[in-house]
Structures are given as structure tokens and as C-alpha cells.
Amino acid sequence: MASHLMVVLSNVKPGQEEVFNRWYGVHMLETINKLQGFASGQRFEQAQLPEAPAMPYRYLAVYEVDGETPEDLQRAYDQFRWQRQERAEALAAGRDPVVSVSDTLDPDHFLVGFFSALTDKVPSDNVGAQA
After folding, report:
1. CATH number at residue 15
2. Is 121 within the bounds of a domain?
3. DSSP 53
């Protein structure tokens, strides 16, 4: 079970879904492979369920932090902060950043948070049970 997660909620600019999703596949690999402190990542799209309440974000990405200690979490957070600064410096210098950001991302609908587990994962006794 992951002890720490980085969670990203995002939306895409209208009409840019295909380009955004193609970019995010590469971006997730860049994040995991170029930044220290991340073990894995997975993306999700809001499920389209009848009568389900609307959510303000369509996309969710969950990055598992590599390690279980507060120091491991701090390392991942420091890398996240570093890549933002490095990207600004790279763009100002006219070079490609280590980790890219797509202009298809809606900057007004984008949240990043780091979370630490409060409990161990609790398995259900009902897995595989038919109603």
C-alpha cells in the first residue's frame, strides 16, 4: 500500500481532449522517470454514470510516492517544486524543460495535493460476492 500520494485534478481546454490525453501519457512517464521520489502513476477520467452529481474536474492522476517515511514524501515534494522552477527557467532560456506542461491544460481548473495514509488499506469481505 502506498504511504504517500500526489494527487492531480485537472480539466482540459475545450476541444483539446485528444491532444491533452496523448500529452499526459508522455507527461506521466516523464514525471515518474525524470523526477526522483515517484514510484508509479495512474490516470482516471470521471465516470459517466446516470444521475451522478457533476464534478468540477474531469481528470484525476494519482502518483505513488517512492518510500514510506516523511523524508521520502519531502523528497517527492521537493522534486515537484523543483520541476516547476526548472520549467520556468527553461522557458525563459528558450530550452525544453525536464518535465513539460501542455497548453491544452486548463490552468484555471488544476489542483495538486500531497496526501499521507492514515490507515492501512482495508479489504472488503464482499469482493467477488454476487448480490
Report:
1. 3.30.70.100
2. no
3. P
Contacts of 73 (CB under 8 A, 6+ apart): 3, 4, 65, 67, 114, 116
Whether the CB-CB separation of 15 and 106 falls below 8 Å is answered with no
Which domain covers residue 107, as residue numbers?
4-116
Q: What is the CA radius of gyration of the chain?
A: 17
Query: Domain for residue 14, yes or no?
Result: yes
Q: What is the pLDDT of residues 8-58, one digit of tens each?
A: 999 999 999 999 999 998 888 888 888 889 999 999 999 999 999 989 999
Number of domains in the chain: 1
Name which of 39, 38, 42 is nearest 82 in CA terms: 38
| 122 domain-assigned | no
**How large is the greatest C-alpha to C-alpha distance in the chain, in angstroms?**
60
